[in-house]
Design goal:
By secondary structure, this protein is an alpha/beta fold. The chain folds into two domains: 240 residues, no CATH class; 138 residues, Response regulator (Rossmann fold), CATH 3.40.50. A seven-stranded mixed β-sheet has the order 10-11-2-1-15-13-14, with helices on one face. Helix 3 runs parallel beside helix 5, helix 6 runs parallel beside helix 7 and helix 9 packs across helix 10. The chain has twelve helices and 15 strands. The two termini are 39 Å apart. Bound molecules: beta-D-glucopyranose. Beta-D-glucopyranose (BGC) binds next to helix 10.
């Protein structure tokens, strides 16, 4: 009698669990063999787009500390931006005899801005203006990161002309034009828009453009291919996508590697550690059983913002051959985990825009190698880059997953995802 009652109770409990629907995979790991985990308690990583206010840049700490297993993975935007600016300045100095194509004493550059509300984009605009001396500070001491439109006469108040002295000769540096490359339906970092912009700019003041700078390689390559390559105007981007690195042989000026190989690893690794219930530093700062470990020169962790930041490296004609394939995993963290201790788990992961060159041609192929090494069964969702619903509508059944990796469309929109996970 007693036994029968116990069995009935067990059956009822099992049914109850099934109704909650939260046993997505054969959960034997840290998330507790078969225990139900509420969606709001599952590991969550934000990546590439940091939850933040797109106007002020202020971090959204509520989203970044949504639960004990929430993190952000990105790269050090300021360090990278400084490197990009310095790379452009060094190029100008080292090529001073040939850079000023029309010999007017003004080194003119144009700038492609990705997304004026994205902190990576803002940092890069500031980094270039700061290194070249063209930045103008606001009352808070921040360099203005607004697009100038066109500034061929040097009268814009958003930027200023600067002077550069090389070998006893003084040159002026001028930001001739800059524009946020957003298309008519709202997609940012848009390559076609950048390709069209260089067409418009070069048609009216092409002989004054000595340097092309872009917040990323996607837009940079569009401008290079549409105009700069044929005119031998050096073009600088960011991301070290394979096609951009290869183009350095054809006159592309340089790019910055944001260590996507390290970021993609960290994106999945923080989830893996939480799912296994092991120390958060496992396989990151501390060697794991398979031998994976990152050295301090490739990343840093900021406990306050719960953020992992990969460090950047400049890629120029001096070292580009080492960066030709952007899809190779980072060797020190490429060892296969044991399925006995890290059993297969299901992860929901989105890419904000399936047409974003960096995320689709560099980041995702890397993730797809690490997911196997880390025994994660990842479902990849591609957004349209414009409306948050193109991603959110695909997160209707969070209970079917053990963990989430989110690349928002707009950095302000973290609360929409959080609400979906709270239900
Ligand atoms: C990359 C861009 C990309 C953007 C998307 C940036 O870090 O440099 O290429 O478009 O992220 O959020």
């Amino acid at each position: 009698m007693k036994k029968a009652l116990a069995l009935t109770l067990a059956a009822t409990m099992a049914l109850g669990l099934a109704a909650c629907g939260s046993t997505p995979s054969n959960s034997e790991g840290g998330n507790g063999g078969g225990e139900t985990v509420a969606n709001k308690d599952k590991p969550l990583v934000w990546f590439n787009r940091q939850p933040s206010n797109s106007t002020t840049g202020e971090l959204n700490m509520e989203a970044l500390s949504f639960n004990d297993n929430t993190y952000y993975v990105g790269f050090d935007a300021n360090q990278g931006a400084e490197l990009q600016g310095q790379m452009v300045l060094d190029y100008i100095k080292n090529n001073i005899d040939t850079i000023d194509k029309n010999g007017d004493g003004i080194i003119g550059y144009v700038l492609a801005i990705g997304d004026k509300g994205h902190n990576d984009s803002i940092a890069r605009t500031r980094g270039v203006r700061s290194a070249l001396g063209t930045g103008v500070k606001d009352d808070k001491g921040n360099i203005n990161s607004e697009a100038v439109g066109t500034n061929v006469d040097g009268k814009s108040t958003y930027v200023q002309d600067s002077t550069l002295e090389v070998d006893g000769k003084t040159y002026t540096i001028r930001e001739l034009a800059s524009q946020e490359m957003k298309n008519s339906t709202g997609a940012t970092w848009d390559q076609s828009t950048a390709g069209n912009a260089i067409g418009t700019w070069s048609a009216s003041f092409g002989d004054q453009i000595d340097v092309v700078v872009s917040n990323n390689d996607g837009m940079g390559m569009a401008m290079f291919n549409a105009w700069a390559k044929a005119k031998e105007v050096p073009t600088f981007g960011y991301d070290a996508n394979s096609d951009a690195v290869a183009a350095i042989a054809d006159g592309y000026g340089g790019t910055i590697s944001q260590h996507a190989d390290v970021q993609a690893y960290l994106t999945l690794r923080v989830l893996r550690n939480a799912l296994d219930g092991v120390d958060a530093d496992t396989g990151i700062g501390t060697k794991d059983a398979a031998g994976n470990q990152l050295s301090e020169d490739v990343f840093r962790y900021d406990a306050e913002s719960r953020s992992y930041y990969a460090l950047n490296v400049a890629v120029t004609k001096d070292n580009y051959k080492d960066f030709l394939d952007s899809k190779v995993t980072w060797a020190p963290v490429s060892n296969q985990l044991d399925e006995k201790t890290s059993p297969v788990k299901k992860v929901w992961l989105d890419i904000y825009n399936s047409n974003d060159t960096f995320l689709s041609s560099t980041y995702q192929p890397l993730l797809q190698q690490y997911d196997k090494l880390l025994n994660l069964d990842v479902e990849y969702i591609g957004g349209d880059g414009q409306s948050e619903s193109s991603v959110l509508n695909r997160l209707t059944n969070p209970s079917a997953y053990d963990a989430f990796a989110i690349n928002m469309i707009k950095t302000d929109n973290a609360s929409s995802y959080i609400n979906q996970l709270k239900q």
